[in-house]
Amino acid sequence: MTSKHPESPLTIAVIGGGVIGRTLARAWRRSGHGVTFGVRRPQDDDLLQFAAGIGANVAAIDTALAEADTVLLAIAGNAMPQVVPQLAPNLAGKTVIDATNNVGSPVLNSIADLSALAPTAHIYRAFNTVGWENFADPVYGDTIGDLLYSGPDGTVRQAVEKLIGDTGLRPVHLGDNDKAHLADALTALWFTLAFEQGYGRGVGFKVLTR
Ligand SMILES: NC(=O)c1ccc[n+]([C@@H]2O[C@H](COP(=O)([O-])OP(=O)(O)OC[C@H]3O[C@@H](n4cnc5c(N)ncnc54)[C@H](OP(=O)(O)O)[C@@H]3O)[C@@H](O)[C@H]2O)c1
């Protein structure tokens, strides 16, 4: 449950069995969290094999959600307007992290729909700003990268910070979800640097602090 001590292992539903879901699932399994992929094709051989390799489970989306205290949304961003209303009744009271980018839409995140349709969920915007390579390897020479994220303060936020830290990145809180647009601006910056300016998909971010 979301009232767990922030250091306690979580029961995480990773909705989406693509590259970002798999990368984060691997990091979270390494840190001792329980992970079940919730996907529309739970018999997919490739995902079943991957999940078995990291000690995760694969289930239908509703089954994965029913068991979870924490939910990562990691499906194609352009599917979110259709999928969120279907998921919402099963998100009540849970920690929900929106990692999706609805590229081509005026707003990349789905925070507004999630907040309206799952008002008791604890909703965060995280893991959207950089490519999956940065979650798999968060070290840049001598520097550890940062992950900037938004969402409400409190005990749940500490658990979300731990999930970010489980990847090796340092969490940097931007504030509540009225700042989610700042995380999304970073996504746009990441795309520009990675693909237009030639830095490649491994480019990451660091906030200099004293
Ligand atoms: N890749 C990255 O580096 C990265 C980084 C940060 C954020 N993101 C965001 O994370 C999300 C996933 O990216 P990805 O790279 O992991 O994509 P991906 O490898 O293409 O995987 C997409 C996943 O979404 C699922 N999906 C698509 N439409 C769906 C629907 N209508 N209902 C249920 N599931 C659906 C797919 O399921 P099927 O296999 O059944 O089609 C698949 O599991 C995207 O929104 C992306 O913008 C990606």
How would you briefly describe this protein structure?
This protein has 210 residues and is α/β, with parallel strands linked by helices. The protein has helices spanning 19-30, 45-54, 61-67, 80-87, 111-117, 133-136, 155-165, 180-196; strands at 11-15, 34-39, 57-60, 70-73, 95-98, 122-125, 139-140, 143-144, 146-149, 170-173.
Topology overview:
Blueprint: E1 11-15, H1 19-30, E2 34-39, H2 45-54, E3 57-60, H3 61-67, E4 70-73, H4 80-87, E5 95-98, H5 111-117, E6 122-125, H6 133-136, E7 139-140, E8 143-144, E9 146-149, H7 155-165, E10 170-173, H8 180-196
Parallel strand pairs: 1-2, 1-4, 2-3, 4-5, 5-6, 9-10
Antiparallel strand pairs: 7-8
The structure holds NADP nicotinamide-adenine-dinucleotide phosphate.
The description of the largest β-sheet is:
6 strands, parallel
Number of domains: 1
* Low-confidence sequence ranges: none
Question: How many β strands by DSSP?
Answer: 10
Secondary-structure class: alpha/beta
Overall CATH class: Alpha Beta
Biggest sheet strand order reads: 3-2-1-4-5-6
Q: Helix proportion of residues, in percent?
A: 25-40%
Multimeric organization: single chain
Strand content: 15-25%
Q: How would you sum up the global shape?
A: globular
- CATH topology name: Rossmann fold
Specify the CATH homologous superfamily: NAD(P)-binding Rossmann-like Domain
Q: Give me the CATH architecture, please.
A: 3-Layer(aba) Sandwich
Helix-strand pattern: EHEHEHEHEHEHEEEHEH
The N- to C-terminal Cα distance equals 35 Å
Mean pLDDT: 96
Bound molecules: NADP nicotinamide-adenine-dinucleotide phosphate
**Radius of gyration, CA atoms, in whole angstroms:** 16 Å
